[in-house]
Design brief:
- By secondary structure, this protein is an alpha+beta fold.
- It has one domain: Cytidine Deaminase, domain 2 (3-Layer(aba) Sandwich), CATH 3.40.140.10.
- It has four helices and seven strands.
- The chain has a five-stranded mixed β-sheet with strand order 4-3-5-6-7, with helices on both faces. Strands 1-2 form a two-stranded antiparallel sheet.
- Strand 1 and strand 2 form a beta hairpin.
- It is globular, with a radius of gyration of 16 Å.
- The N and C termini lie far apart (40 Å).
- Keywords: Hydrolase, Metal-binding, Metalloprotease, Protease, Zinc.
- Pfam families: RadC.
- InterPro entries: MPN, RadC_JAB, UPF0758, UPF0758_CS.
- This is RadC family protein.
Length: 161
């Protein structure tokens, strides 16, 4: 991908044969850079565009965590679990291990619903509670759990945290 910057807009040119995955990967990279330039996440919804690009088009469920430091600056976004068309097994022990490895202070949990319906299920609410409690024990705050479908639904903004 070739990037040309001007004073008003950044222009992108994809050379040769380009697959849909190439375009989506480039878009994810652009959104990730935008998030990183922003420096920190002022509200959990700041990450919606990035998470929608990363998870929105998948045909199976994936569970990701956006790890943040104590000033809510982005440390990393990790895919921790991959599932099937209607679920993914998420293990709190592995989430805690990942948090400790990156020395995170806060987290935004995210997963997708391939059906496109982003309403959090009872299982989503239960998992969020389990992860919140497990991470709390090691001093990591869960700021939100975003469910990605045809739209992004913030469990924090719905009062489900």
């Amino acid at each position: 991908m070739h990037i040309a910057q001007s004073l008003t807009h950044t222009r992108y040119k994809l050379a040769g044969e380009t697959t849909e995955q190439d375009v989506l990967g480039a878009a994810e990279g652009i959104l990730r850079n935008k998030l990183e330039r922003q420096g920190s996440i002022g509200s959990p919804t700041d990450a919606n565009d990035f998470l929608r690009m990363r998870l929105g088009g998948l045909l199976h469920e994936e569970f990701h965590v956006l790890w943040l430091d104590n000033r809510h600056r982005i440390l990393d976004c990790q895919k921790l679990f991959t599932g099937t068309v209607d679920g993914a097994s998420v293990h709190p022990r592995e989430v805690v291990r990942a948090a400790l490895a990156i020395n995170a202070s806060a987290a935004i949990l995210a997963h997708n619903h391939p059906s496109g319906v982003a309403d959090p299920s009872a299982a989503d609410r239960m998992l969020t509670h389990e992860l919140r409690e497990a991470l709390r024990l090691i001093g990591v705050r869960v700021l939100d759990h975003i469910v990605v479908g045809s739209e992004c639904v913030s469990m924090a903004s719905r009062g489900l945290l």
